[in-house]
Amino acid sequence: MPASPLATVVSVGLASILSLSPHLVARARAGESGGTHANSAQTEFGKGIRLPADAVKRLKSGDPSQVKSALDDVRLSARAGAAAVPAIVDLLADGLPPELAQEAIDALGDTESEAASSSLSWYARHRNLTLRRAAVQALARTRGAVAVKALRTALSDFDPDVRGLAAKGLGTLKAKEAIGDLFLALDHKVPEASRSIGLLCAGDECERLAAKLGSQPFEVMTSGLHEALLRASDEVPEELKVKIVGRVRELGTGEANRFLREVQAKWPKRASQRVKQAIDQAVLATSGSPGTGGRDAERKAP
After folding, report:
1. How does pLDDT run across 244-290, given as a tens digit for each residue?
2. Which of 14, 75, 181, 288 is the residue whose CA sits 20 to 30 A from 255?
3. Does residue 260 lie within any of the structural domains?
């Protein structure tokens, strides 16, 4: 089989992009059109294409080409490939060449199986930077307490990409127990932590995030404040959102105005009218700030 995978789009109810070798593309198409491989390539909504019966056998074959083809099948199968997780974990434990190890790590992530988290957590500390990055990215998909613990540890990795992936992953996993670690990471120049804090913060934590306006780059702060403002009112109360809007308004800059207009444009029709009013007033109050377009911006504001 060819050495390099072919990028294609596979429809499994929701479009997802996977690295596929040519024989897998043909198998997927056959399944969609009811061809001779329809039984082995039958799709399951939200899970991917059914894992071939011989995939685990190929993973255990010891033949690199067979292992590679099986890993391709697991990736294509997505969550439906979870049955292959123990075999992949064993392969990683026994040791694989770096390129094949990365494919195994990626396959574990695609299964979204929590059973893969322990193996991935070990690779999240691997000396090979490429494998470490891949493992941290995969952990955000496999979930569970082991994944959260590994991602919290990865926030202090010496590589900025690993730290950023870890911060993103904790937000994806809704790991509220990691909020303190994320604030520490933000203070140590991990900008991705801001958005995750915005997704997770409650009460004083959201105010603490907003209080960093001026001490952190504006675009870093707004990635988190944007998330906090657009969360449901039972997660971030109206009063707190009004305070956040007020802090941005106090900056009186063109950046602040552009951010407020962006939130204004995305504000849900059924969301708090009190907060909307605060946003509208803040847009008007900052519309004359340098870099906002002056009167043109003011005319566009409600």
Report:
1. 999 999 999 999 999 999 999 999 999 999 999 999 999 999 998 76
2. 181
3. no
